[in-house]
Amino acid sequence: MRTVIALLIAVSAFSLALGITQPLMRLEHLVFFSRTPSLVEMVGQLWSGGDRLLGAIVALFSIMFPAGKLLAAQALVAGGDHNPQMRQRMHRLLAIVSKWSMMDVLIVAIVIVAAKTSGFADAFTQPGLWFYVISVAAAAVATHIVKD
User: Fold this and answer.
1) Distance from first CA to last CA of the chain, Å, rounded?
2) DSSP of 20-67, one letter per residue?
């Protein structure tokens, strides 16, 4: 079972790296303008545009929490039963970050729907979103197995 969990964590980590660096969506404004921002670019634009609190919140919930979830799951798998205190701490950390694991995908979906329905732009999903969803799904399965 540890091999399956380790494989799921590896797939999730690889997909997370691609999911945050590849374009999440393509926004087409009017006929001539098109943008394909990645999650990292969105956080950077929020930060540099003066919305530092929002940028920090998006970075925390969309980048740091998923990475923390993967690290906690990996620590549980790699740590075995040698250190019960560390195992207990990792289970608590995993429980905390797991509660928020799908919120970021929901936020991106809401942004896409809002852009499409507002008439502001046409929005189309890009590979970054699909890698991000794969990362979240693989991490969810891995952490569910680890918790049991």
Assistant:
1) 11
2) HHSB-EEEEETTTEEE--BHHHHHHHHHHTT-HHHHHHHHIIIIIHHH
> Is the CATH number of domain 2-147 1.20.140?
yes
| Contact by Cβ (8 Å): 73, 5 | yes
Length of the chain: 148
Report how far residue 68's alpha carbon sits from residue 31's, in angstroms, rounded to the nearest whole number.
41
C-alpha 49, offset from chain centre: 22
pLDDT at 74: 86
Cα radius of gyration (the chain): 17
Query: Model-level pTM greater than 0.85?
Result: no
Other Cβ atoms less than 10 A from the Cβ of 5: the count is 19
Predicted confidence at residue 140, as pLDDT, reads: 85
Q: Which pLDDT value is given to residue 15?
A: 96
8 A C-beta contact, residue 101 and residue 140: yes
Mean pLDDT score across all residues of the chain:
80
| Cβ atoms of residues 27 and 115 within 8 Å | yes
**Mean pLDDT across the stretch 6-22?**
94
Q: At residue 75, does pLDDT exceed 90?
A: no
